[in-house]
Amino acid sequence: MSAMNATGEIQRQDAIRVEGLRKVFSGFQALKDISFHVRGGEVIALLGPSGSGKSTLLRCINHLEEIDGGRIWVNGELIGYEEHGAVLRQMSDAAVSAQRRAIGMVFQGFNLFRHMTALQNIMSGPVYVLKAPRAAAEEKARRLLAKVGLADKADSYPAQLSGGQQQRVAIARAIAMDPKVILFDEPTSALDPELSQEVVATIKTLAEEGQTMLIATHEMAIAKGCADRVLFMVSGELVEDVPAAEFFAAPRHERSRQFLAMHG
Asked: Domain 3-102+179-263 in CATH: superfamily?
């Protein structure tokens, strides 16, 4: 059956659906026929050794990377391309930017605007992209700062914040756009263990509130404490897609067992 016929009903329930995804860099196959879905409200931990393709997968979902095969839907909308028969054609930059409004992205390097305060960083998307009234955007930004435990840091610049605080501001900035899904690319990898726990606690709160999240991480506290399912990748292949409890209790793949022996 065609992708649209086979999954049309399911796509309306899925927050993310990936089918047959392939990505090639200079002859190197970074993603090999990846297929999975994420239901609304699910939290998925994307695990695997360095170089397994986790970050590339996230960047493809957000169309920061063009794909070389397959399809990606977010909330039933084909991402980055328009279908013309069996042919995919790139959407315009403006159309892709509009799609990204529904897809929050939190990077390992924080990516805050250095010349803006924490409050201004969070307000920037709603004001400049969504054209929200400044007063409403500020009220929302202050609520979100309180939500991530940083109500007293509204006027602080990134250089005045710890790494954990910067990452929590980055999470609040993503939430401010009311995304349908949030993608996390190793959100704690740049942090020492104590600061990473601040970020883990914030992600747990979002999970409890039903935020749909796909989290590439080496932080087992996130995978064990927040995730409904684990996707485990090795060398560009998805080798396990199982409930999180099952993955940690009885991983099926030898490479999964080796990974847990090192990180579990």
From this structure: P-loop containing nucleotide triphosphate hydrolases (3.40.50.300)
